[in-house]
Design a protein that fits this description.
- By secondary structure, this protein is an alpha/beta fold.
- It has a seven-stranded parallel beta sheet.
- The longest helix has about 40 residues.
- It is globular, with a radius of gyration of 22 Å.
- The mean pLDDT is about 95.
Length: about 425
């Protein structure tokens, strides 16, 4: 007998980080006895537990309406068109039989015409408990997914940097902020932050400082008993992303860090190789490294593990990350993580024990950040050479304990029990 029925609503079942972890959550819940299914706008798998939330025409029309509204509100600026979301338009998922049959409705990444704020009210009107998993800062801001240096969300959005000449006291960000405030005041939503950093930011915000927020990480699958042994003749440093030269990923910081390693530790640099994977818009972004470099291009998911299992260190120079999966997977598969400490990295890395957290300067000085990453790379290399196998076993145990599908499913089931009174 199945435990309960849960429907997860997410824009896609495959495209984007939220889609991948949402599908993993569905699989983990099913493995634990929950009848979990997904409703999406983009279905790329043939899993029978995944279905379209509505007709293709309705989904496309909602997407176009929302984008058009944003395009008008940002002064026809294409550069920010997909950095802004409003939940102004979406399909009526409250009519879907999976929603009507569900004991709990889990919202994940529901923008770009998937679901509107009105649609969330309609779900609540059915008497369904709503759990909303936050993968970025959108729930606590007016329209942006990452506030960056903007502090507006702490008080009241408006004068939004993403709206350019259309920014103002009552701009789109201010109007959506008010709609979210009204929704949160009327509808009991149980929020899940995927990292302690994200939870802290939410509690600082004007929209969510009184919200019900739990911290449950994303689920990962670790079908491995012990990490693969490594040949340390060449120390491979792994850096991967969907798009390596996305400004958020901080690639120039990594370039500078490798130059600093080469200058300070030429002996170490001589035995290191930087291995990168992912898309690049400008090939010149991959120049100037101080270490030997090999670029693998974009890789299918099944090949990423092989890269990590041939590596020794995984590095992240992202300016902010909610819960970087590259660090979780790299660590579990045997790479010592080195990362800027500006996001959920502290939930993954025990500094000086299972990795290195390079302190991110409050003034955003990227030269200081590069020096901190360079120090971390040198520290990690020394650890690999002195504690290799024992450290890899420790990292796997900690990753499995914190992020295994079983532990994440158990945490969600405990939340479901609480909000349904089971």
């Amino acid at each position: 007998m199945l435990y309960m029925k849960v429907v997860i609503i997410n824009k896609s079942d495959s495209t984007g980080g939220a889609a991948v972890v949402s599908r993993r959550l569905m699989e983990a819940l099913n493995a634990s006895g929950v009848d979990a299914r997904m409703l999406v706008a983009e279905r790329l798998t043939d899993d029978s537990r995944v279905a379209y939330a509505s007709t293709g025409l309705a989904l496309k029309a909602a997407f176009i309406r929302e984008r058009l509204g944003i395009f008008l509100a940002n002064g026809f600026d294409r550069s920010t068109l997909f950095k802004i979301d409003t939940c102004a338009d979406g399909v009526d998922v409250a009519r879907h039989p999976w929603v009507r049959q569900a004991d709990v409705v889990c919202l994940n990444w529901v923008n770009q015409g998937m679901l509107s704020l009105r649609g969330i009210r309609a779900i609540a009107a059915l008497g369904k408990p709503i759990v909303w998993t936050m993968h970025d800062m959108w729930n606590m801001t007016g329209v942006c997914h990452h506030a960056g240096d903007c502090q507006g969300f702490l008080n009241h959005c408006g004068d939004c940097p993403l709206l350019g000449r259309r920014a103002g006291r009552n701009d789109l960000s201010a109007r959506v902020w008010r709609r979210k405030k009204a929704l949160y005041g009327d509808v009991p939503v149980h929020f899940v932050a995927v990292s302690n950093w994200l939870s802290t930011r939410a509690r600082e915000s004007s929209l969510m400082r009184h919200a019900d927020i739990r911290v449950i990480p994303n689920a990962f699958n670790f079908d491995i008993d012990e990490p693969r042994p490594r040949d340390c003749g060449t120390l491979r440093i792994i850096f991967g992303a969907a798009r390596l030269d996305d400004p958020i990923k901080g690639l120039p910081i990594l370039v500078r860090a490798t130059q600093l390693v080469a200058a300070a530790r030429p002996d170490l640099a001589a035995r290191c190789q930087l291995v990168t994977f992912g898309n690049v818009r400008a090939a010149a972004a991959l120049s100037g490294f101080g270490l030997r470099h090999r670029h693998l291009g974009p890789l299918p998911v099944r090949e990423v593990r092989e890269v990590y299992e041939s590596g020794h260190i995984v590095v992240s120079t992202s300016l902010y990350e909610t819960l970087p999966g590259t660090l979780v997977e790299g660590q579990a598969w045997g790479c010592v993580p080195v990362s800027l400490d500006h996001g959920g990295q502290g939930d993954i890395i025990s500094h000086g024990r299972t990795g290195y957290l390079a302190r991110w300067s409050a003034d955003g000085d990227k030269e200081k950040a590069a020096r901190a990453i360079a120090e971390g790379l040198a520290w990690a290399a020394d650890k690999v050479l002195t504690e290799g196998d024992a450290l890899r076993s420790l990292m796997l145990r900690e990753a499995r304990g914190r992020f295994s599908a079983e532990s994440v499913a158990a945490a969600y089931k405990a939340l479901f029990d609480e909000i349904t009174g089971r």
